[in-house]
Amino acid sequence: MSPNSTDISNGELKLLQTDEYLKHESINYAKKWKEFKYFLSQLKWFNIILITTVHVIFVWGLITFPWLQRGRLILWHTFIAHLCGIGVGAGAHRLWCHRTYKAKLPLRAFIMVCYTIAGHNPLFYWVRDHRVHHRFTDTDADPHNSKRGFFFSHVGWLFMKKHPDVIRKGKEVDMSDLWEDPVIRFHHKYFIPLTLCFCFILPTIVPPLVWGQDWYWSIITSVVGRYVIVLNVTWFVNSAAHMWGTKPFDASISPTENITVSCFTFGEGWHNYHHTFPWDYKAAELHYAGYNGSTLMINFFAKMGWAYDLKSASPELIKKVALKSGDGSHFVWGKEVPESAEEEIRKEVKQK
């Protein structure tokens, strides 16, 4: 018998190879089952049931709602949605999270109420999660990491327990400035009654009491319709504005300039600019870009003296960054501009 031969027949050898293959397969199935059980353990069933239920009711209401006969109700919730946009965009986002401007107590109280109407998490948690999102964008420490797909970054992150890195990095974020604000402390202490009152009860009872709207549709549109729309519009900043659009300021990051999201969120969809200049109170290059309702509101209160110390990037800095890091899609700096045009463009921007 040659040194390299074996006394096992071809049939027996094939049998051994098959047994070994099945053994490996069983190990893989055991591993997959273990991973599946871990996945189930990470799900937050209360959130899944609640969010899914209100969305199912929303779709049913969308189909059966008498659109032509309820014009005043639509206008009412459009007004309420604008208040929500101010609370989330100008308040939680630009004021408390990024400190892009300062606000006096009456304005902070007003913005807090507007934020409460939106029905989001307590301000303290919203700001903490967003600061973590900016510091660790699209990593495991990002609460709504867009690299995990559209569904996860849109709403799926609310269906699951936070990744350990999110919790770990969240503890490292300095939140001391929020606790120094009595408005934040008040909102945190009375979060549940404030949310019930301003998000659901008041928007529901005003239409029937003021102009005799029927209670049925007032409840459906307030508790489900407007609430679901506001939630999804906000979520699109985390999902769509991190996936589709241009990157005129920094092509190396995922956030994009998404005009559709910007229009529906009152100016929060110019996300490539915002992640490049997070300290700019406009959250966009130009205050008239799309519909930037939050910027208009801040400018209005600045004239009243309630908002002050507004921070903004200069045209010179924007040009430098766009030419150096952008993808070439900037409406002005996407192409080479003569040096002689610098002063003219600067004047034009200031006039706008």
Automatic annotation (TrEMBL):
Membrane topology: Multi-pass membrane protein
Record's keyword terms, sorted: Fatty acid biosynthesis, Fatty acid metabolism, Iron, Lipid biosynthesis, Lipid metabolism, Membrane, Oxidoreductase, Transmembrane, Transmembrane helix
GO molecular function, one term: iron ion binding
Subcellular locations according to the entry: Membrane
Gene Ontology biological process terms, A to Z: unsaturated fatty acid biosynthetic process
Obligatory cofactor(s): Fe(2+)
GO CC annotation: endoplasmic reticulum membrane
Domain spans labelled Fatty acid desaturase: 76-278
TM regions (residue ranges): 45-67, 74-93, 105-127, 190-209, 215-237
PANTHER family xref list: ACYL-COA DESATURASE (PTHR11351), GH07782P (PTHR11351:SF21)
Family: Belongs to the fatty acid desaturase type 1 family.
Domain notes: The histidine box domains are involved in binding the catalytic metal ions.
This protein's name: Fatty acid desaturase domain-containing protein
Lineage: Eukaryota, Metazoa, Ecdysozoa, Arthropoda, Hexapoda
